Sequence to fold (86 residues):
Amino acid sequence: MTSGRAARIWQFALPPLTIVAVVVAWEALVRLRGIAPIYLPAPSSVFVYLSRMIADGSMPIISASPCCASSSGLASRPCSGSHSAY
Fold:
């Protein structure tokens, strides 16, 4: 019974732990190797710039809906429901 519980815990904990490990390794690689941000920015830098852009409005939060994207000017034509070419 304990092994089944431990397996379930690992099943749910392993994916987030893997993501955290990859981000930590990425940060360490960039910092320790001194890689220029133009080639590979550190994840902390990406997070800081992304949060600043969202906060000051220079990067709007865009919905995943194509109709919302068309109303913000990102699509070349409005949502009409048809998928035919012009």
Remarks:
- The mean pLDDT is 79.
- The helical segments are 2-33, 43-56, 66-71.
- Residues 2-63 form one domain.
- The chain has one domain: 2-63.
